[in-house]
Amino acid sequence: MTGCLKRLYVWLVYGFFYLPLLVMFLYSFNTNKYTTAWGGFSLKWYASLLHNTAILDAALNSLLVATCAASLATLLGALAAVCLKRYRFPGHRALAIGILLLTVSPDIVMGISFLILFIACSIQLGFFTLLISHTALCAPFVAVTALARLAEFDERLIEAARDLGASEAGALLHILLPLTAPAVAAGWLLSFTLSMDDVLISTFVTGPSFEVLPVRIYSMVKLGVKPDVNALSAIMFLLTLSLVLLARVVSQLRRKTA
Amino acid sequence: MATNHSSRDSLFRTFSIAGSWLWLGLFALLPTVVLLLVAFLDRGEVGFFIPSLTLDNFRELFGPVFLSVLGDSLRLALLSTLVCLLVAYPFAYALAKANPRRRPWLLLLVIIPFWTNSLIRTYALILMIGAQGMVNKLGLALGLIDVPLEILYTDFAVFAGMTYTFLPFMILPLYASMEKLDPSLADAAKDLGAGALRTFWHITLPLTLPGVVAGCILVFLPSLGCFYIPEILGGATNMLLGTFIKNQFLVAKNWPLGAASSSVLTLFLVLLAVLYRFTSRRVAANMPLRASRNEE
Predict the structure, then answer these.
(1) Which CATH superfamily is domain B55-286 in?
(2) DSSP secondary-structure letter at B3?
(3) CB–CB of A217 and B120 under 8 A?
(4) Are B7 and A86 an interchain contact pair (Cβ–Cβ within 8 Å)?
(5) pLDDT-derived band of residue A158, with 50, 70 and 90 as boundaries?
(6) What ipTM goes with this model?
């Protein structure tokens, strides 16, 4: 009896998560412009997105920023994770705590402080400022997740390689990197998602000449329900879904090889 | 871990430590210092701020305008954090106790909304609670209501939106703390005659407290600082903290006041981080067998 109740409760919560998304997904195929009634199946809202140059430009800009920011963040995050795991040095704890705090630091505070910094340095708002702030947003997440994976790593493997004459960098490159590559790849995918989704920071650090997709979607959403927003949101959801699944597959690879 | 002499002189060691500090400094310390500095500056006539020190911005935080914004924001953020906690705790517990073979899949179903764009999830909620939304349609069809309920553009809609959006952020840290829980501890308490409630109060809850605090950080801070959920779902009457800060930067152009008002968020971040540290230390001290001894 309690087992039944527990199961019901769990699926109610899942229903709460997925029902609105499902409804949005269905409406994106609705011929009717309004959500009053179902008018039949249609792909016209998806087709209309293809002719909307403002959205296409914003999507392209977002893909560019997300790809570059995720790559940079992965490099920096992985570097910090390796250094925190491998070495003990003065300020080790401060570095670890600082990175952990960054992951929970409110996005809006990050957005406004970067805005002030960029304006104070007279850097023009656009691609570069987005790249910097999105890298700052994602790198701590990569560092924390990579560090969690590295916790299982046996450091004697590196010591053994060093004893056999490998250089420090060589040992890390040939032993640590292959073992953590899946975790790092998953970190890249999740950084990409974070950057593609960010509204709170992008609102502040982007200029009128360089619009990104989340900010564009936000200005559309503020005007209420629109069928093409349904279609665009459905695409964004499917993109996230596939990235999360890919990240999962990639991190499972490690368990099989290690 | 023992660092032997050969790694101490390594070039890579220096490079990685310096590199990590450099990015933390550039991405976290420098912006924070600049933000703090601007909070103490005067509002300029032409520029965004002028270099003359003042405490006026912080004084304004104690004025009636900001206090009412802060009061409304705190009320909504606290309420949604509390409801998230009450919903997520039994859910995470059920997940942690689920069949190990199905557990990764059940967890994945939480991770997907965790990573899905919050803006899109907020938008999807309009389709449910709007005047033409699913809730009203269903209610009318079943005869539960005679006229469509006005849910959208109310405080309740903002509360519902925050709860819906941030619930996965509460579940995941709770789950992580429950997964580590040693079931033999609860069994031992039961064997010694403790009831279910006593076992929960003295064993399960204290040991999962770090997860509770972590979840509260991940729900409370975004609820307090997020501007798009109230702007999309809320009415035009009450302004919340996120919108207030955003407006100082993008509309009113009063950057020093915006910087000063964001210090409320930083203050809560520090307080909650200290609380997290305190609870996780207590757990580590009370669980000597399972605590990580390899830290030093």
Answers:
(1) MetI-like (1.10.3720.10)
(2) P
(3) yes
(4) yes
(5) confident
(6) 0.90
